[in-house]
């Protein structure tokens, strides 16, 4: 039995070398390699901003539908009642109150403030 030295030859005649280094592992599997966090963070921030914008747009659209239904319901309510001005005023004030609540629920503060000012103006004009 013979022992081979690092510079000995194999039985086929090829030199044996123990000093050859193994292939380098890929960067993904290296210990201590930094993950691509900044790119991921930027992507998540942009997606979050887009989601917030989409949610705000849907709330505005929801409020516009509620407002449109109120506009179309007002004449129908007025026609089914005794067509008096008192009924019209009462339904108008109820509608304004509902629109204020809907605007605040949908997060549209400017519209809620506008409708509350319209309601105050109407009360001063009709209520005395």
Short description:
The protein is an all-alpha fold and 128 residues long.
- DSSP helix fraction: 55-70%
Structural class: mainly alpha
Largest sheet: none
Number of helices: 3
Question: Approximately what portion of the residues adopt beta-strand conformation?
Answer: under 5%
Q: Label the overall shape.
A: elongated
Gyration radius over CA = 38 Å
Total number of beta strands? 0
Low-confidence stretches: none
Task: Provide mean pLDDT, rounded.
Answer: 75
| Terminus-to-terminus distance | 119 Å
From N to C, what is the helix and strand string?
HHH
Keywords:
mainly alpha; 128 residues
Describe what this molecule looks like in 3D:
There is one protein chain. This protein is an all-alpha fold and 128 residues long. It has a domain at 39-127. It is 66% helix and 0% strand. It has three helices and no strands. The radius of gyration is 38 Å and the shape is elongated. The model has no long low-confidence stretch (mean pLDDT 75).
Spell out the blueprint of helices and strands.
Elements: H1 37-80, H2 85-105, H3 109-127
Helix pairs in contact: 1-2, 2-3
